[in-house]
Amino acid sequence: MASLSSSHSAASADSAAQAASTVAADTSAARPGANLTALRDHNAAAVLTLVRAAGAGGVSRVELARGSGLTAQAISKIVQRLLEDGLVAESGRGASTGGKPRTLLTLVPDARWALGVQLGRDALTVLRADLAGRVVDSRHLPIDLAGWGPGPVLDLLAEEVGRQLASVAREQVLGVGVASPGPLDQQAGVLHEVTGAPAWNRFPLRDAVADRLGLAAEIEKDSTAGVLSVLGSPNRAFIHLDHGLGAGLVLGGAVQRGARTNAGEFGHQVLDPAGPRCRCGNQGCLEALWQAAATPDQAARLLGEGVANLVRLLDLDEVVLGGREVADAPETYLAAVREVLDARLPDPSWQRVSLTAAPAGRDAVALGAAGLVLARVFG
Ligand SMILES: [Zn+2]
After folding, report:
1. pLDDT given for residue 94 in this prediction
2. How many Å lie between the centroid of ligand 1 and the Cα of residue 101?
3. Which GO molecular function entries does the Swiss-Prot or TrEMBL record give (predicted)?
């Protein structure tokens, strides 16, 4: 779900503004989430997931029955609905083991769209992803999260969403996922005291975005959204290096948010109790040491110590590095973290850990936020 091909629509500023006001005007009539149709059904979502996994080669109804454990009759009904909704297409015929050839089914990636947003401290990322999780349009707009406050940021968001949806039928838009710096209450959809941005304290971000855009909305901590941008190992971490250090975690195939949906405060593990003061109030946090590092290599090695701690604590086999700092110097970070990991793990030949830079680059967190919306479709 990480391929990235960025393109920009040729909509003029006028038409973008016009579309944005349409978005605002649609709000009262909107029924967020009403366009999920057949996909509210868990079995249909499971079948669609199998079709997506089959890729361009396609999959037969018989294989879908085998893969899902559903009866041939149930598969036939579900596929019929998915065909009627335009989510899958019949795409030629596969080899048969006898009898008549089997019709193959493939996903129609542009049948629906998901929007992904990253609220950064100085940039707003807005992208549109297709059902296959590919980015088809992406923009990074400068903002001042703390200085502007919610009103002007949501104005800009509505304008950009209007531009990106100008050529898209509204019923094809599944919703919008918004990633934000924490702490936040992911289930209630409300921000807590975002460090250094008091105008956003207790802001009901999810409902405000849903009302403003007339779309079903979800929110997620930025680092947790990042881990959703990669369909990788069931035991993986996404390390988000931006103004601070966070980690998104998937363990046993499930996203881990913790008791208050704030798991992953990776940067605030104390490595030196006598170290420099951290913005969280403690001393010697990894984040404070990383920020005080004299050289990029030293910063990367400190990060490696934190990653090694995390891998040993959770027995991870995949670590993905993302965020602006990594996008700027991927080789520096990958080399240094690899070296520290190999030194710290007792038996690196057995404890193999995949270490990569986020394939979606600067779009990773926003793409993961779009993945929140796509996840509801695919179950
Ligand atoms: Zn700290």
Report:
1. 62
2. 62
3. DNA-binding transcription factor activity
